Amino acid sequence: MSARRRQRLTLAGSITGAVVVALDGTVLTVAQPTLQRDLDASFTQVQWTSTGYLIAVAALLVFAGRLGDRYGHRRIFALGVLGFAAASAAIGLAPGIGWVIGLRVVQGVFGALLQPATLGMLRAAYPPDRLGMPIALRTSAIGLAAAAGPVVGGALTTHFGWRAVFFLSVVPALAVGLLALTVRLPEPTRRVGLDLPGAGLLALALACLVHTLTALPRFDWPAAALGLTAALLFVRHERRTPNPLLPGSVLRSTPVTSALGVLVCASAAMFGALFLATYYLQDVLGLDPLGSGLRALPLALLMVLAAPASAVLMRRHGARRNAVAGMLLITAGILLLSRLTPSSSWYGTSAGFLLLGAGFGTVMVTATAVIVHRASLDTAGVSGGLQQTAMNLGPTLGVALATTLTTLGLATGPTLLAFAALAGTAALLAARLPGPAPVLSTPAPSSALSVNSTAGTGPSAGTGS
Fold it and tell me: Nearest CA to 430 among 462, 399, 398, 401?
């Protein structure tokens, strides 16, 4: 098989895997009310169909990426996507809400396996200076899935019931899983350590963090205390173990840590603002779910268009300018949404969503490219796991902050201003990303990049759920 054909098949697999996960989350949101009625479930139980999945994914992403570094991203991707398909089919056949919750956790485990592998496979298949456009196409596909999910989920639920939304991903997931078994990619150059104690401590810390955030505005002190203890023990363990879960070459890289911070802040600001704006459109402007969805549609469309454009612009202007511009667009979009009134027109709301989509698509591609480009083949998985963790924690944090601030009595406008301030502050963090000068640099071929090389080189080009 030629290298070009291998790249195309890898890109198709990476995009399909990312879309399957993104579509699964958006279609479920629409189907949850029907699921609750059919299974005679409580509101709390229905919430756990999402919370259980989210906790499983967030807790295991980094370790799943490390598994790919050790055993090969293609193998881990195939296991994850085939398991995801099996779990989806089982949920569609589940007899009760308890089964749905348990199987959603299982689905989250397999989702955690496949998500970092979608980036790890791209890093293995493409040279570092050609990563920008594949990542951009993957990001565009995720945006398209986010836009299509509510429509597809609503149509399936209306005509065939809630179970149909889980069968939706089975066939494409099976197809891409079998395809992944036939494509050969470069294998890891050495057997990296798995650091099982570190993986367990990090998983516990992240699970407690997500649970604490999803429980807000009610603060779960025991979960928070347990998570903080696990985090402190994890840091202590990582400093002493000879084979840490998070390699020092990754954590000591200013561009990587800055890019991760930008992703968390950008996704928190964007999803928090979207959460508030959606409620405002329905509760204040009196729009139905379809009407509010159409108002927000420009966000997804601009995200789809901005992703490939940002890859081209980053080759010319560098990651720093791209990311700063993206964060400023997000800030401007949130500021426009903060000025919504009961008489706001379609043009007024759509302009805010247009800026949000353009900014978020730009930031996602740019920050992800910085993270993936800087990884060697032996750290691509753990780097992808960190990127996916940031993209899971950010939205959770944003919605939790929005819920807490509104519960405390803050009006929608001032709350949106708080998110605009968060996005504006993140623009300062984006200014720490590499500039245009080292665009054609290539990361060191060794399994662990030195501190000097990671601090002085930049991405060649610019996800993910």
Answer: 462
Amino acid 45 reads Q
Say if residue 33 is preceded by a cis peptide, omega within 30 of 0. Answer: no
pLDDT digits (tens, 9 = 90+) for 219-248: 888 989 999 999 999 999 988 888 888 887
CA distance 426 to 270: 12
* Cα dist from 112 to 108, 197, 370, 372, whole Å: 6, 18, 21, 17
| Series of mean pLDDT values for 10-residue runs along the chain (465 residues) | 80 89 78 85 84 88 88 89 94 92 94 89 81 86 79 80 89 88 66 82 90 84 92 90 82 86 92 83 69 76 88 87 93 89 74 91 90 78 88 88 85 88 90 66 36 32 39
Distance CA 15, CA 412 (A): 36
Measured CA to CA, the distance from residue 388 to residue 464 in angstroms comes to: 6
Report the alpha-carbon distance of residue 44 to residue 22 in Å, rounded.
Answer: 23
Give the chain's length. Answer: 465
d(CA 407, CA 245): 38
Q: In angstroms, rounded to a whole number, what is the distance separating the alpha carbons of residues 386 and 378?
A: 14
Secondary structure percentages of the chain, helix, strand, coil, to 5: 80, 0, 20
Which tens digits make up the pLDDT trace of 77-104? Answer: 999 999 999 999 999 999 999 999 999 9
Upper half-sphere CA count for residue 397 (Cβ side, 13 Å): 20
Residue type at 339 in one-letter notation = R
Question: How many angstroms separate the CA atoms of 439 and 236, rounded?
Answer: 36
Distances (CA, A) of 205 to 64, 354, 404, 456: 16, 36, 22, 32
Residues 403, 212 contacting (CB under 8 angstroms): no
| Long-range pairs, 442-447, Cβ under 8 A, ≥24 | 442/127, 442/128, 442/129, 443/128, 443/373, 443/374, 443/375, 443/376, 444/376, 445/376, 446/376, 447/189, 447/190, 447/192, 447/376, 447/377, 447/378, 447/379
